[in-house]
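Why should sequence recovery work at all? Because a backbone constrains its sequence more than one might expect. Tight turns favour small or flexible residues, buried strands favour hydrophobic ones, and helices have their own preferences. The token representation captures these environments compactly. In the example below, the structure is given first.
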């Protein structure tokens, strides 16, 4: 637990298991990913900052609703400076993040984001595909130099993008543990 007004560590918060600020954290995480993929701004510190702040906000046991709450969070959390607080306030006030919207308009960013969704394609390989002229998943699938994992990722791309319902995961977990520890 941090002392009032101290910025030496992130505040201790209750883990609710539910992200009450999903809209905010999604935008911050997407911006971190764009910075990670951007050849102009491969700024590891900026990426870590966005990811760290998103992680702190995810764990909050309350919904951020006002600029005052953002200011209070910034005052007690190391890493949330004036500009980051302004970005978060913009999302809270408008539901949008102009910097992210602008980055999303860039076709290169969109393409790299798509490529990194393929199994075992990271930022470097996505960048290589883009430099080599690939602009679609179909372009990638025609490459003779794909790894087995890349081919599987492309083959099952749509299935791998679907979220598994929590109830289904719970069923699988029960089945796993009952099979693992049954006499």
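From this structural description, the recovered sequence reads:
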């Amino acid at each position: 637990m941090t002392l009032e007004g101290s910025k030496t560590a992130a505040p201790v918060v209750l883990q609710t298991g539910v992200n009450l600020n999903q809209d905010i954290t999604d935008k911050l995480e997407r911006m971190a990913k764009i910075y990670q993929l951007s050849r102009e701004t491969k700024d590891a510190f900026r990426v870590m900052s966005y990811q760290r702040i998103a992680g702190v906000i995810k764990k909050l046991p309350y919904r951020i609703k006002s600029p005052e709450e953002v200011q209070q969070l910034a005052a007690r959390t190391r890493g949330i400076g004036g500009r980051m607080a302004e970005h978060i306030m913009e999302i809270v006030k408008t539901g949008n993040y102009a910097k992210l919207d602008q980055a999303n308009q860039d076709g290169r960013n969109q393409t790299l984001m798509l490529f990194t969704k393929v199994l075992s394609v990271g930022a470097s390989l996505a960048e290589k595909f883009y430099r080599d002229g690939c602009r679609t998943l179909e372009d990638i699938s025609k490459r003779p130099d794909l790894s087995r994992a890349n081919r599987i990722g492309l083959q099952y791309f749509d299935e791998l993008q679907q979220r598994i319902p929590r109830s289904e995961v719970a069923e699988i977990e029960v089945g796993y543990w009952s099979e693992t520890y049954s006499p």
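A few observations help interpret the result. The longest helix spans residues 22-37.
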